[in-house]
Each structure stands twice: as C-alpha cells, then as structure tokens.
Amino acid sequence: MATTHRDQAPDRVREAGQACDELRDALKAVGVVLPSLGLDPVSCTGSAPLGLIDLGRCNIATARALAAVLRPRETAR
C-alpha cells in the first residue's frame, strides 16, 4: 500500500518537534536562548504539513551572542 502525505504528517510534525528541542538544547549549551523558538503552527497543519521551525524574534544581545557562537573559532597555531 502506498504511503500518502497525510500518512507522513504526524511523523513530520513529530520530527520537527524533536529537531526544535535539539536546537533549543544545543543553543542553551552555548548560552543562547531564543525565547520564541518553536514550531510554526500554520506549517504543521493541512494535508501535507511542512513542520517548519520558527526561530522567532530576539533582542540585540541575543542576536550578537548567537552570531558569536556561529563564527568559526580561531585555532591556535
């Protein structure tokens, strides 16, 4: 029996939730908290949900902290 988009919907949304939790934990480990991080509810509904993760909004300090941890680290020579 063929699998339809509707059959995959709960798995896709569940996977997006797990990915969101992983991202939240990884950011927390480096001292960054995105207060609005979560699943985009609109993308998690319908006949073929995408399960998008909404990174949300943050203040200037949080944006700079995120940029700092994403920059490549200089290696000691």
Question: How would you sum up this structure, described in words?
Answer:
The chain has helices at residues 5-29, 60-70; strands at residues 38-39, 53-54. It has one domain (5-70). The model has no long low-confidence stretch (mean pLDDT 87). The protein has 77 residues and is mainly alpha-helical. Helices cover 47% and strands 5% of the residues. It has a two-stranded antiparallel ribbon with strand order 1-2. It has two helices and two strands; from the N terminus they run αββα.
Summarize the helices and strands and which ones pair or pack:
Layout: H1 5-29, E1 38-39, E2 53-54, H2 60-70
Note the main attributes of this structure.
mainly alpha; two-stranded antiparallel ribbon; 2 strands
Distance between the termini: 58 Å
The helical percent reads 40-55%
- In one word, what is the shape? elongated
Biggest β-sheet description: 2 strands, antiparallel
Number of strands: 2
Mean of all residue-level pLDDT scores: 87
User: How many domains make up the coordinates?
Assistant: 1
Stretches where pLDDT is under 50 for at least 5 consecutive residues are none
Q: Which H/E pattern describes the elements? A: HEEH
In order across it, which strands form the biggest sheet?
A: 1-2
Number of helices: 2
Structural class: mainly alpha
Strand content: 5-15%
The whole-angstrom Rg is: 16 Å
